[in-house]
Design goal:
This protein is mainly alpha-helical. It contains 1 helix and no strands.
Length: about 30
């Protein structure tokens, strides 16, 4: 369970990071 929880947390962090990059790439003037 601990491993699964850790993986899910890591995936969430990566997902959020990708979303942030995606937003910045699509709205470069909104930084």
């Amino acid at each position: 369970m601990t491993v699964l929880f850790s993986q899910k947390k890591s995936y969430t962090v990566i997902y959020n990071m990708l979303i942030n990059i995606f937003i910045l790439n699509n709205h470069p003037n909104k930084t």
